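Side project, low priority. Logging it here so it doesn't get lost.
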Amino acid sequence: MELKRLNKAISESGFCSRREADRYIEDGKVKVNNEIAELGIKVSANDKIEVNGMLITKEVENIYLAFNKPIGITCTTDTSIKGNIITYINYPERIFPIGRLDKPSEGLIFLTNEGDIVNKILRSKNNHEKEYIVSVNKKISPEFIKKMRNGIPILGTITNKCKVSKIDNYTFNIVLTQGLNRQIRRMCSYLNYEVTKLQRIRIMNINLGSLKVGEYRNITKKELKELLSLVDDSVKTEEAS
């Protein structure tokens, strides 16, 4: 039977990256066959692997959820963190979020148990669209819209050109293809605007629609088929997540 390093086996399950798996192992949070594991050991498909008390080797069908994340919920699989997304949803099977939506923001985020789709979606160079509705603390000027569209210097780079349209005096719609840390908030801050509300309403072909805050639904077969076709040219990488 094929043996592979423990960190690789954890990563391939989609639970986290290899680097994060090493940290879990170093912290004594990984068990193999009920024994605390050490760095560098190898495992087979028959071994029982637990991370932070969660069994990651159980065979279940692929799960794909769309969730309307409330403000105050943190997108982490670390269940020791208060307000974490996993405890909030309390789904009966092991799942994890695809990407992040920061704590003060709300709206659409995917959760799954399938590592391949995580890696594919998170490869930012595939230019997958994410759409947001954003409210700010003062009136939006034509100059604000123009500068947001053309790129803002943040985090040592210039943001990619993007679609921005004014909804009303204090609200705008923006479609991003990047995933920089707190990107919209940083862009607005650079122009001396403060975000008062940020909601993600779409990821690629899947819309938030009428899904209420705090609720989730299964991604439909039709949606999944289209989603998979959009990420079909993506290539898995070890540290994509």
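Brief comment: Residues 221-230 form the longest helix (10 residues).
Revisit when time allows.
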